[in-house]
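FAQ

Q: What does a record look like?
A: Structure on top, sequence underneath. For example:
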């Protein structure tokens, strides 16, 4: 069950307009250290693009604000048409409440929101770099890039093997996949930036897409700058409203002239040009900061 309120243009849905939907929960399951939530949301699925997010109302005590979640997967065909998946880590009252929902429960969902990943304008190799559950929207992006006939390579990182997400899917959809863990429990010991240059050379990468904790995104953006590679990052920011009203998710962004302006991650992002973010003016530490991959996110 899913009911939506949305705008129309000449009797047809306006696919650029988010909708508010009452959505039936189809499945809630564990996937490694994380949770996957699937719900029926036909109009949201029709509009969604990789990199966008949905905003869910939660019913935990004292939870007045919605919670934003990147769209991990949509199904637009077959018996599962009209479904949306999100992935989350339970580490606050809002996400803890979501672990308790069951099939046939209903959720109040707004989406899709935000700016999606821009598609390459020419045939280039695409490197997707994900940290922790930040891998989820990149798997969605990878499927889209492959349908466009583009090469996809992936680097997936986390603090430990238990916090890696989408290992099998990454191997399936990419021409090459490299995994890093900080404790060496799976793949190469280290961080995603430790293997970035080698993967770029092997895949003849022309553009990089990344999603994960912002400290990781800073390190990836700065390394891509050294390699003269364009990089698009889906930032993790606390979004109180998700529609650009509250200004709690602002980031400093440089324009072409080098001037810094505050931009809202929910409206102007969450996908942003990593080279334009004035990382030194943010609260995210230098690339050497010991921030485990995949430990960011909201409650």
């Amino acid at each position: 069950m899913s009911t939506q309120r949305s705008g129309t243009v000449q009797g047809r849905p306006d696919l650029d307009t988010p909708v508010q939907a009452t959505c039936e929960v189809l499945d809630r399951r564990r996937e490694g250290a994380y949770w996957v939530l699937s719900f029926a949301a036909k109009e949201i699925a029709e509009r969604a693009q990789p990199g966008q997010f949905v905003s869910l109302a939660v019913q935990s005590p004292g939870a007045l604000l919605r919670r934003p979640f990147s769209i991990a997967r949509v199904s637009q065909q077959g018996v599962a048409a009209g479904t949306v998946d999100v992935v989350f880590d339970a580490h606050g009252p809002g996400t803890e409440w979501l672990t308790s929902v069951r099939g046939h429960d209903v959720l109040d969902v707004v989406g899709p929101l935000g700016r999606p990943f821009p598609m390459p304008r020419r045939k280039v190799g695409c490197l997707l770099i994900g940290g922790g559950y930040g891998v989820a929207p990149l798997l969605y992006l990878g499927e889209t890039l492959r349908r466009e006939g583009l090469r996809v390579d992936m680097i997936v990182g986390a603090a430990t093997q238990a916090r890696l997400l989408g290992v099998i899917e990454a191997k399936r959809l990419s021409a090459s996949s490299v995994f890093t863990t900080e404790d060496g429990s799976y793949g190469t010991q280290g961080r995603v930036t430790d293997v970035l240059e080698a993967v770029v050379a092997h895949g003849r990468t022309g553009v990089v897409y990344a999603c994960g904790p912002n400290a990781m995104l800073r390190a990836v953006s700065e390394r891509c700058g050294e390699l003269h590679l364009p990089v698009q990052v889906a930032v993790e920011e606390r979004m109180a409203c998700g529609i650009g009203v509250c200004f709690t998710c602002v980031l400093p962004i440089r324009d072409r002239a080098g001037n810094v302006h505050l931009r809202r991650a929910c409206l102007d992002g969450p996908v942003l040009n990593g080279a334009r973010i004035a990382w030194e003016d943010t609260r995210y530490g230098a690339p050497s900061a010991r921030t485990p991959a995949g430990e960011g996110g909201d409650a």
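Q: Is there anything notable about this one?
A: The chain is about 20% helix and 35% strand.
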